[in-house]
Structure formats: C-alpha cells, structure tokens
Prior knowledge:
D-Maltodextrin-Binding Protein, domain 2; 14 strands
Amino acid sequence: MKKTTRQILAFMTAAVTALSLSACGGDKPAAETTKAPAAEGTEKAGGEAQAAKEEEASGEKKVLRVAMECAYAPYNWTQPDNSNGAVPIQDSNEFAYGYDVMMAKKICEELDYDLQIIRLDWDSLIPALQSGQADCVIAGQSITEERLQAVDFSEPYYYASIVTLVKKGSKYENAASVADLAGATCTSQQSTIWYQNCLPQIPDGNILAATASAPDMLMSLNADKCDLVVTDQPTGKGALVAYPNFVMLEFGGGDADFQVTEEDINIGISIKKGNTELKTAIDSVLTKMTKEDYSKMMDEAISVQPLAN
C-alpha cells in the first residue's frame, strides 16, 4: 500500500512538472493559461478573464437614484432625446438634462455609481427620500431650517441670489429695491423661499396663489396674470432665454434687497436623515469644486436649455 502511494505521488509530480514546463516554454504567456471558473461558471483565459472581471464589477456598481422635477430649467428639464448627454428618465421614453443632471453625472462618475433619474412633482421629492423611493434629491432645493427637520443636506452645490422678473414696459421695470415693488400683484412657485419668505416682504403686495411649478410661474407672468415673479438667479437667467420680453431685476443685496439667510440661497442635495455614508460620499465630490466651477456648469446648462422648459 505504501509502495503504491509513492508511485502515484511520483507520477503526479512528474505530470505537474511537465505542465509547468509547457506553460513557461509554449507560445502563450503564463497570464493566459486557463484560470478558475468565473462567477458565472464560465472559464475565461487571459484578456477574456480580465474583461469578464470588469463586466462583473460594473454589474455590481451602486445605483444612485436621484429624484427631481425634470421641469425646472435650467436646473432640470425633460427632453425627447439624449442630446448633450441627457439621461433616461425611469419608466419613461424621455430624457432629463440640466444643471442638476450634470451634477448628478459628475457625482456618479467620481464615486463610480450608476445613475437613475426619477421624475416627481416638487412636493413629492422629500417624501420620496423618506419612503426610500429615492436616494437623494438634486432639484435646486434651498437648505432651509424647515427642510432640515425632514432631511439631511449635502454641502451647497450652488449659491443662488434672489431676483425679480417683470415684463418689458411694466411700471416696475426700473425698480431699484424691494420697496419700489410696492402694490405689485405677484406670485412664485409653491413650497419655495421665494413664495414663503420673499413675496411677503413686498409692501402692500397682492400675493396670488402659488404656482405648481417654475414653468407655470413664468407662464403666469407672460400671460399678464401678475406684475412680477420672484425666483433665483439661474431660473431668472433661463427665463430670459425662453421669454425675451422679460426683464430681470437684481437689487444687489443689503437693505434694498429681499432679506434672506445664507441657508435660503445655498442650494443643496437632500438625503434621507441618518444616511451619513451617502452624505459623506457626495460631500467628498462637492468640496473639490469651486463657485467658479458651479457657475461655469450653470452657464452651460442655460446655453442648451430648451425654450419649452
């Protein structure tokens, strides 16, 4: 029995040695010899094995589910194709683009995530985080104390000053301060600091019901349903592209302007409360960027926004 075992071991040693010599001296380098089966159970060799490994890794990427209105140019909008790098909207044959999508793409590229865009109306964005429908909201949200009670926020990804839009020829066209807007009929988008904080500062203002969306707000002004609307600078700049008959008023801050806090004009990415891992990851990308980077990206978004949004 012992003699038989020695014979077998000798035979196996010889076979292994022969195989080793063949692998080293043959046409194929050692890296291309047959490897252990891949996760799918399929044997790969050399470059094929590496490609399979990369595909497997890609399949394991985290998916960042980002909610936005897709109707708030230049932050985000809907378009029919993928031009300029637009991203498919979940459960839709349409695509989303704009500053928020550009920022979401940059975050995903930096963190090696896949991106999924979820289209929701404005008032459904925060509930989507709380219910787990979305991982974060990138939708031009101001970092207000009220919102901080419901969600966490990233570092600001844009700094947006407040502006007023009127039509050319309006009696308010040459207003130089909030005081000069006295008596104006005005509106803005619902659940925004523009509507809740800014409009009440207009002396004797006739505040109409809030509009459901930013496009509705702009259409109200264009249709002469109001004298003015209050919004942030990127939305105002985008509006001037879509509505050349609009004038944007900027009061330069200080006592003449709308009184807002830094939190009101700092635009952040909202995240479900307690999700510190995602917040830290997103902040790691944003802290590498400057205000100039944000402005350049916003100008690019404004330059390609469709007039219909």
